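ok posting inputs for the nicotinamide-adenine-dinucleotide job
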Amino acid sequence: MSQQKLSRREMLERSMFATAAAVAAQHANLPVAYSQGVKSPNETIRVAITGVNGRGGSHVSELKSRSNTEIAAIIDVDEAVGQRAIAGIEKDTGKRPLFFTDIRKALEDKSIDAVSVATPNHWHSLAAIWSMQAGKDVYVEKPVSHNVSEGRRCVQVARKYKKICQTGTQSRSEKGMREAIEFVRNGGIGEVKLARGLCYKRRGAIGPRGTYEPPKTLDYDLWSGPAPIKPVTRPKFHYDWHWQWEYGNGDLGNQGIHQMDIARWGLGVSDLGESVLSYGGRLGYEDAGETGNTQVCIHRYGDKRLVFEVRGLETPDLKAPKSDAEGAKVGVIFYGSEGYMVMPSYSSGVVFDLEGKMVKQFKGGGDHFGNFLAACRSRNHEELNADILEGHLSSALCHLGNISYRLGEQLPVKEIAKKLEGDAEALETFGRFSEHLVANKVDLDSKAYFGLNLTLDGKAEVFTGPNADAANPMLTREYRKPYVVPAEKDV
Ligand SMILES: NC(=O)c1ccc[n+]([C@@H]2O[C@H](COP(=O)([O-])OP(=O)(O)OC[C@H]3O[C@@H](n4cnc5c(N)ncnc54)[C@H](O)[C@@H]3O)[C@@H](O)[C@H]2O)c1
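and the output
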């Protein structure tokens, strides 16, 4: 399905079928370009994979042995990482992909149809936007953005250039998850006013803050990309950027975005809500990390709430009320007027009645990359299970939580309760939050951030109210040229 092949085919088709296609498109209520761009199921989709140290390795495994799909290129700013992936692909498939360190060079190759992105978060949106502007379809890892505004820009670019853009929240393609969410949204547990997302995932200290060298095989200017070039202050270069604000979004935007997405999906809300409040800290150890390891975010949608809890210290799982059955650690719990839905994994949901008795289970996997490739052929973004719009909205909720947190005042943990007085649900969550810290021997006199309670115009995706002036600039970042996400008017 290379663009070279496409243009040859287009030349033939234009003379023979252009009128028929336009008529068919009118009937199907689709833009003409979509219907003319339909790919045959037999044409090979040539994919370039961007960033192959950790998750990009799974992109390789997902794509290397599919029929009618070829890994055409590997892009990595760390040559050693890229060459290691190439050697593995050549061994397994007999074909040696091209290698690029700079994505812009790869995007000049017209034979590449699609780009998958598994770089650090601060590169996701820019890599996706440049790829779509160069005519490629995109599979972009979660979170799709490092800030709210660039995620919205990805949606705008995907629509303007009529590109397929799938978010890497793979649970959206799992059968068990899809059926469980449908059950919740169809009233299976009655009216749901509370969804609790859980990222209870042990995260140790990442070593002392200092000055360290990036890997010798890595182009640090390209790695930094849209972020300022700063000395490296963490001992382990790859992966641990998740815990530093210039590049990552903490565990909210690492593991947590999967569960934030499931919680928002099940609540059936498709904007950024009315308000956000977050509190927490990096508690229990001191290291080179900056993001919270223990954090609560409360997002309000009218009388519905999405509460998200991050716990990087040791903790037991959370169960449905009154239940002795296994609960969830990395999961979601929906609280309904007639029961509870516990999602303990990416692909299952367990229903409990109000007495805590298990009454129903949903299970079963899926094929998220397969869903992406099928939509690349059909040219219909509505067939995607995790279209970029969904990815943007859920990623944005993580960013909003971090904005509230980062604008907060520092208080002894025990004083946070006073700030939540009169709000029973918030106090219950805080009660468990402080018990958890005590269990991990964290003194409740330790300082934590109590974030600003920020109000929002959730559809316009801007903060309103008294703290808007402080919060709105944090919806974007200052991009280091030439790694600049275009403004809305320049797309
Ligand atoms: N969907 C999932 O289940 C899942 C699981 C793990 C990670 N992820 C996501 O995948 C992303 C990568 O995570 P990781 O753990 O592999 O990180 P990592 O730091 O281990 O690897 C990132 C790789 O990207 C390369 N890179 C950096 N900038 C680049 C650029 N501009 N062009 C090309 N390559 C570049 C780095 O050299 C490195 O090899 C993260 O955003 C993470 O959130 C998703």
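notes: The chain has 15 helices and 18 strands. Residues 1-36 have pLDDT under 50 and may be disordered.
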